[in-house]
Sequence to fold (297 residues):
Amino acid sequence: MSGPTPFNDRDGFIWLDGKMVPWREANVHILTHALHYGSAVFEGVRAYGGEPFKLSEHSQRLKDSAQILDFEVPYSVAEIDQICRDVIAANKLSDCYVRPIAYRGSEQIGISAQATKIHLSVSAWEWGSYFPMEQRLKGIRLTMAKYRRPDPATAPSKSKAAGLYMICTVEKHRAEKAGYADALMLDWRGRVAECTGANVFLVKDGVIHTPEPDCFLDGITRRTVIGLAKKRGYQVIERAIMADELKDFSEVFLTGTAAEVTPVSEIGEHKYKPGQISETLLNDYMAMVQPSRKAAE
Fold:
């Protein structure tokens, strides 16, 4: 039985440095600086019914992330937005995932890279739920990660930089090998931070608590869900949450562009039951992003 189609061997088009390129021809040189030194920033954008959700916020964050890594994306937010829409159209996609990435090229190799050209590429492909819907509704199982999110004094935490996801891949693999869906990461102080690719919310006595994003990304979906929660009248508290508090919560859910809103049933030894708040915000979020659900309501 064959596996999924490799990402380097697909039909379609990828936008690369100003033009649409046949998918299999969108390549980079082996001495590309980003491959050796992690000098790349990226975004993940979901499109529903062909319309990318909060696209301009993602495009702006891409440019901001690049500036933190000391380079400039050579396109405006409006231009990046249009490129993303053009890629969706070129590939005849509707519900899909869009991946803009900006990176240093191969003109110079070494710690100093001021002579490198800054490249921009945008790809898009069909992508369903990050976690299968049946699994999501009953809650996913998380383990505790061993790696921690670093001190902002030691890493560019406010940038969606490719290199910052290295430990996330390690922890995601570790979790999956142990039979879990994902891993919950603490920060360097031992506080609850985030999962490998999603923010976390915890519910106690009808109040929603979430870690203050001082050493990890304040996710676009995170902010959206906080807005939805407040619109419903829920109290949302952003604060430091210690690991030993995990036993005190009744509901837990994750948010992210890929994860959308996903309830959690277990974090290590701690058990949770997806409840009304998780279900309500999951439904509210999906109604916001999916045109078909809006029309149905």
About this structure: The domain at 133-296 is CATH 3.20.10.10 (D-amino Acid Aminotransferase; Chain A, domain 2). Residues 55-68 form the longest helix (14 residues). The helical segments are 33-37, 55-68, 77-90, 133-138, 166-177, 220-231, 276-289, 291-296. The chain has eight helices and 16 strands.
